[in-house]
Design brief:
about 425 residues; about 60% helix; elongated; 6 strands; mainly alpha; about 5% strand; two-stranded antiparallel ribbon
């Protein structure tokens, strides 16, 4: 522990100074020796650190999404050079360089918080061992030792014995109950944060090993927090619980307003954006314009949720522009699943289905009408009316009419007992 303290001694003094400044403010409201004053000082330290780390958090999001995009290419490289690890590493580095992606960028917020975490741990450990550290003098040390959070001293740990806890003015039961509750809340918040990332903000169209790794971390991290949490002082548990809650809220905001393409969060966001844009007939914020601009620039590479968004705007007479704005237009071109435009045509109306009796009556009327309009009926009437005339009265030209020849390309039917086609002459019988 002394080695770790010496490594982070350069930041111990700034951390202790920040805590003392916040304590002087909260001490005027809640009292200098209360747990509220010291506990809120630690919470304020976390908030200040996390605000300073927002640029790194944004970089982490971009790096995580870039890694998700590169997973198919990385898998191909691993399969192609599975027997040559050196060539595999070279191709991986080449891929990272071409795409401008750094795998370590996703760990930047955690790495940047580590010095502050260990510095705070060292400060609280100094309070527990009754030694001044940083800008915390003897009077502040005595005040911090009197501070209790729900009956547990700031410097007490779950593994402390009864004698050490009694020296800090508390009971072992209070310390273990408070620390156990805080460890459970810390692990649960970490699990929920990772689960929220996996279920809502991951591209479900691409199945990669990266998703399996994230799913494994979803269960590993809470267990690690529970194991190491029993050795953390109450003040450090307050620090880490506040960090997890901040991360969870920050992630919820990012997932809601800037989701990963192809994820369930993007489908929900584009559904809300469609209702908003169709109601106001324009994009009202810079974030909305940036989302629409990114969707338009993809062209035929849009996913199903983005095509659905463009088609929804088209159906109400709106057209998304390249600069992210939305204007009224007359275009009726919709996009199919493969991204090709097609013209929206109205559906053909299906005829009304008739009953069996209606179909039979319609068929009977059609038969009667066709019988009346057939010319054979008139000819039959004429032939009957002229049947009384003698045969000699008929003109000679009408006596015999040559039989009509069959249409070209057809054959006349063969008589019964004869084969079709020309007949071969019979050979003379030999006597």
């Amino acid at each position: 522990m002394d080695t770790i303290a010496s490594l982070f001694s350069f930041i111990t003094t700034p951390v202790s100074w920040v805590i003392v400044q916040f304590h002087s403010v909260y001490g005027k409201v809640f009292g200098p020796d209360t747990g509220w004053a010291w506990g809120l000082s630690i919470v304020s330290l976390v908030i200040l650190i996390r605000i300073c780390l927002i640029p790194l958090f944004v970089k982490q999001i971009k790096a995580t999404r870039a890694m998700q995009t590169l997973q198919p290419e990385m898998k191909k490289i691993q399969e192609r050079y599975k027997n040559d690890k050196q060539r595999q590493s070279e191709e991986m580095m080449k891929l990272y360089k071409e795409s401008g992606t750094n795998p370590l960028s996703s760990c930047l917020p955690i790495l940047a918080q580590s010095p502050f975490f260990f510095a705070l741990y060292h400060v609280l450990n100094g309070i527990a061992s009754n030694s001044t550290i940083g800008v915390i003098n003897d009077s502040l040390l005595a005040s911090a030792q009197k501070a209790h959070i729900f009956g547990a001293p700031l410097a007490a740990k779950f593994t402390d014995g009864s004698s050490k806890v009694e020296a800090l003015g508390a009971t072992l039961t209070d310390v273990r109950v408070v620390t156990a509750i805080m460890i459970v809340m810390m692990s649960a918040s970490q699990f929920y944060t990772q689960r929220q990332l996996m279920t809502k903000n991951v591209d479900t169209t691409v199945k990669t090993p990266f998703m399996q790794q994230q799913k494994m971390l979803m269960y590993v991290f809470p267990v690690m927090f529970a194991i190491f949490g029993i050795n953390f002082p109450v003040g450090v548990l307050v620090y880490w619980l506040t960090t997890n809650v901040w991360t969870m809220g920050q992630q919820m905001y990012v997932i809601r307003n800037n989701p990963t393409p192809g994820s369930k969060a993007q489908a929900a966001y584009l559904e809300r954006l469609t209702k908003h844009v169709t109601h106001h007939e324009k994009t009202r914020s810079r974030g909305e314009r940036s989302i629409v601009k990114a969707i338009v620039s993809k062209g035929r590479d849009r996913n199903e949720f983005e095509r659905k968004f463009i088609n929804s705007l088209t159906k109400v007479g709106l057209v998304a522009q390249a600069d992210g704005t939305v204007v009224k237009g007359e275009s009726t071109a919709l996009e199919t699943e493969d991204g090709t435009p097609t013209t929206a045509t109205p559906r053909r109306q299906q005829p009304k289905r008739q009953t069996k009796a209606q179909r039979q009556s319609t068929a009977a009327r059609a038969t009667d009408d066709s019988a009346e309009n057939t010319p054979d009926a008139d000819e039959s009437k004429t032939s009957l009316s002229k049947s009384d005339e003698p045969e000699d009265a008929k003109p000679a030209t009408a006596a015999k009419k040559p039989a009509p020849k069959p249409a070209g390309g057809t054959r006349s039917k063969a008589q019964s007992g004869q084969r079709k086609g020309p007949q071969r002459p019979k050979s003379p019988s030999k006597k």
